[in-house]
Amino acid sequence: MKDTYETPAETEADTAGLMAGRRITFDEAAAWLSATELRLRQVARALETPAAPVELETTINELRSGAQRIRETAKQMLFLARVTDGEVPLTKVFQGTEDPWGVAARDSDRKAYGGPAIIPTQWQLTKLAKDAEKPGAQTTTFPEAMEGIGIGWESKVADVRRRVERDAAVAKEVLQIPCKTCPAGLGEQCRTKNGWPAEQPHVGRLREAEATVDARLGYLDVNPVHVPDA
Length: 230
Hints:
Number of strands: 4
Helix content: 40-55%
Distance between the termini: 32 Å
Radius of gyration: 24 Å
Strand order of the largest sheet: 1-4
Oligomer: single chain
Number of helices: 7
Mean pLDDT: 87
Strand content: under 5%
Order of helices and strands: HHHEEEHEHHH
Structural class: mainly alpha
Low-confidence stretches: 221-230
């Protein structure tokens, strides 16, 4: 599977410059995506006449194709901005299943779809908006349906990224702890009874490293990471 998460350079990048507040708005995201699309198209146009005589048709077309995908994403962000501002009516339940979403979904099972839709996806919101246009549909707005939800929330993508970062931190911390099961000291990998180096540390050493890292990162019980304001 293609890796879609950050490189070290991206992880260290400061995203504060992308937003006016503490969290990015969909309107801000749309503006940045629009600017990115324009720059990609400009690079593609410039590569039509590069400094060295090399045919770059494939790269130019790939850049323009990527720019088009970014344009569609920017449009989706603008739509979500209208939805979350309460401008777009949404049906109170998913048509066909009658499953509620948002605050109303807290006590529901929704077993066939992986659990209650408390936090709707962007595509669910698109469907809810489309179904709201049907005659007789009972509608609500995003602010009404989500009242009291969202403080401290973050995407599943952030959850995965934080887990990757946590695992990497644990791997480094392990080497800072002498193993109590084998003779491995600081900076050394654990070893088997025959003296072979093992990539997987002994359980006691691993648990000690995990406890140290989790305390430093603010992990809470089974949660991947402490989320500010949660």
